[in-house]
């Protein structure tokens, strides 16, 4: 069935929402999350506060939309990594490619990664509305689906022992979130913290702990070193 074409009005609405989210992201990148307010954002996009609220009903909704958009972009990057890796690599190597893709996102877009990390670390503070927190949780699950599928495929092929895909996916993702926030600390500890090495070590420890052959893991992670 063909999807119904969006009306010009709907396209304008989406474009305006995108412009609002761009301005909010730039504000957070320049001054931090504490500087973000609906009044300042309205001024930045040349709207009255009343006009802004027609697009985003609250600051909670704004933060949720910002994070959902980031997670949508993350999923797109992970799907690109899967498309490049699926035809010629084992599921373990696909896991490694996905880890590398997320690491690349954190490096390339540190402010958006930082907002994602902050929001996920303090959900009760930043996303007080239950509906918005649930929407973000759903977006996290959707973004991580390529990683979950690679772990499922690895278990089905006997490369990992049987286990819960959701728990494994969240463990691996949480490890990455923590490690990839260390570059600031690493700058003050020259020679003491190698973030890339920690990404490899953490991924290796989890995969071996889930039953993978250490040699297979070493081979899969060669591109991450």
How would you describe what is shown here?
This protein folds into two domains: 56 residues, Arc Repressor Mutant, subunit A, CATH 1.10.10; 166 residues, Tetracycline Repressor, domain 2, CATH 1.10.357.10. Helix 5 packs across helix 6 and helix 5 runs antiparallel to helix 9. The longest helix is centred in the N-terminal third of the chain and has 27 residues. By secondary structure, the chain is mainly alpha-helical.
List the helices and strands and how they pair.
Layout: H1 8-31, H2 38-44, H3 49-55, H4 59-85, H5 91-108, H6 110-121, H7 123-126, H8 130-143, H9 145-156, H10 165-179, H11 183-187, H12 195-209, H13 214-220
Strand content: under 5%
Distance between the ends? 46 Å
- The CATH top-level class label of the largest domain: Mainly Alpha
Main sheet makeup: none
Question: What is the overall pLDDT average?
Answer: 87
* CATH superfamily descriptor of the largest domain: Tetracycline Repressor, domain 2
Rg, Cα atoms, Å: 20 Å
CATH architecture of the largest domain: Orthogonal Bundle
Please name the defining characteristics of this protein.
225 residues; Arc Repressor Mutant, subunit A; 2 domains
Describe what is shown at a glance.
The chain is an all-alpha fold. It is 74% helix and 0% strand.
């Amino acid at each position: 069935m063909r999807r119904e074409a969006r009306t010009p009005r709907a396209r304008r609405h989406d474009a305006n929402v995108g412009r609002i989210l761009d301005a909010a992201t730039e504000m957070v990148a320049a001054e931090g999350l504490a500087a973000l307010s609906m009044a300042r954002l309205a001024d930045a996009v040349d709207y009255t506060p009343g006009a802004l609220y027609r697009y985003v009903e609250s600051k909670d909704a704004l933060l949720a939309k910002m994070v959902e958009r980031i997670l949508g972009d993350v999923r797109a990057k992970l799907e690109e990594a899967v498309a490049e890796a699926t035809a010629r690599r084992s599921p373990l190597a696909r896991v490694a490619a996905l880890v590398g893709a997320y690491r690349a996102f954190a490096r390339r877009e540190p402010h958006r990664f930082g907002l994602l990390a902050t929001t996920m670390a303090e959900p009760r503070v930043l996303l007080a509305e239950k509906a918005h927190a649930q929407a973000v949780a759903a977006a996290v699950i959707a973004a991580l689906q390529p990683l979950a599928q690679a772990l499922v495929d690895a278990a089905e092929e006997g490369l990992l022992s049987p286990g819960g895909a959701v728990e494994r996916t969240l463990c691996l993702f949480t490890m990455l979130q923590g490690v990839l926030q260390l570059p600031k600390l690493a700058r003050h500890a020259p020679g003491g913290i190698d973030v890339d090495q920690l990404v490899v070590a953490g991924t290796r420890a989890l995969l071996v702990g889930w039953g993978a052959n250490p040699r297979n893991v070493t081979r899969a992670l060669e591109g991450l070193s």
